Amino acid sequence: MGTILFFQESEWYLINLIKKLWYYGLNFLRKYMWAEDLMDKFMRIYRYQKFDYSFSTTESLLYAMGGDDFTSMLNMTIDEVMQKSGFTKKFIDDMVVPAMRFNYGQGVDVNGFVGAISYAWTDSGLWAVAGGNKLVCSGLLHAAKAQLIQGTVTSVQEKVHSTKPGNTVKLYEISYVTDKGPGLDLYDIVVIATPLNKNLGNIEFVGFDPPIEALYGPYQQMVVTFVHGRINTSYFGCSKPCHFPLSDVLTTYNPKLFIHSISAVSPANPVPESDTSKASGLRVWKIFSPEVLTDEQLHQLFESYDAVKVRNWLAYPRYSPPEKIPPIELHRSIYYVDGIEWAASAIEMCVIAAKNVALLSHHQWYGKNDHIDQQDLAERLKSEL
User: Fold this and answer.
1) What is the pLDDT of residue 266?
2) SS3 assignment, position 56
3) Are 114 and 104 in contact (CB under 8 A)?
4) What is the pLDDT of residue 2?
5) Which of 27, 154, 265, 271 is the most buried (most CB within 10 A)?
6) Residue 108: what are its φ and ψ, rounded to 5°?
7) Which of 28, 39, 31 is nearest to 85 (CA)?
8) What is the pLDDT of residue 1?
């Protein structure tokens, strides 16, 4: 980026295949077989959960899916994993680095598991939710008929309460604040579904021994900028007039680069592009960058623009293998969903973790230990079916 487009995709599959073979030899064919094996193992978790099996640690969950192949990747970089699998350094630098920069704003020094899952999914069809991913959460709340208290949790504390027959019971006291003021409720089970990081959450765990602390490592800053304007194709190495439609640009590592990627935004429900838009070249573009873009940088990227919106947030863990994965069980009946992000951060991973916690808490509450941390599930379920 900024000099040349070293690999330009065609609209024709056969042309792309020939170009890939010419540039990278058999690496792409190896990638398909490698990704297929990876995803076959990954998909086992859905069968396990279908039959209500759960896991008390993220490591045991990953081991049940892919054995040592999966758990060992937490202690290696994706660069090391792929070189060990026979991929060339040129292929990794040209194809895997851009994917990591796009997905996580990091390079091939991320842990092997998040890198492998992320890169294996680059050829898969991704789905978008019309109206935004927030509708997934509201839809789940509606389907579960859950009582939602729209407030901010401030503290969690274990309390002993007396019952009518003269016995005692341990409950968790949750303090929170809503628009109407402070509130307090008691619960048997608590599930934490927000990162326990001092920059992302401010929940105080009172009186626990050992203490429950927000100490699970830094998160990676990501800035996303939406721009309605006309892209400057010459900046990306395509001199004017540019004879092919520029829609997505991924970047390799270069310390002088100030963006990770830029791509044209496509709506969940595509609509025909108007003649006016085609003639003017105006589109909405999404830019990922490590820092907020300056006016000078925007003018380098665009010939002209009329609207800019910026969102800056701590998006993902800052991966640095060997990874220290947070526990799922923080206390007797306190469970942590977001710890799985330190293995791999993705909405699908969070869904798997949430289902696992729901099953795990249910089984521990009712003493169904035969459905927790069971070994050889793949073979067992195959024989039972």
Assistant:
1) 74
2) coil
3) yes
4) 45
5) 27
6) -85, 20
7) 31
8) 44
**256 phi, psi to nearest 5 deg:** -85, -10
The token pair that represents 376 in the structure block: 């050889």
Three-state SS letters, 264-286? ECCCCCCCCCCHHHHHHCEEEEE
Domain-located, residue 343:
no
What pTM value is reported for the model? 0.89
| Angle between helix 13-24 and 27-42 (nearest 10) | 110
One-letter amino acid for residue 276 of the chain: T
Q: Retrieve residue 306's tokens.
A: 């009329």
Q: How many domains does the chain have?
A: 1
Domain carrying residue 278 = 219-317
Which pair of tokens denotes residue 203?
């929940």
**121 lies in some domain:** no
Phi, psi of 204 (to 5 degrees): -100, 125
Dist CA 158 CA 201 (whole Å): 20
Tell me the C-alpha distance between 159 and 151, whole Å: 21
Residue 324 lies in a domain: no
Q: Which two tokens stand for residue 108?
A: 């091939």
| 286 and 265 Cβ atoms separated by less than 8 Å | yes
Question: What's the confidence (pLDDT) of residue 342?
Answer: 96
Q: At 233, is the pLDDT very low, low, confident or very high (cuts 50, 70, 90)? A: confident
Give pLDDT tens digits for 38-47.
999 999 999 9
Q: Give the C-alpha separation, 313 to 308, whole Å.
A: 17
- What is the predicted pLDDT for the residue at 271? 62
Strands 261-264 and 282-289: antiparallel
Contacts of residue 58, Cβ cutoff 8 Å, sequence gap at least 6: 325, 326, 328, 339, 340, 342, 343, 353
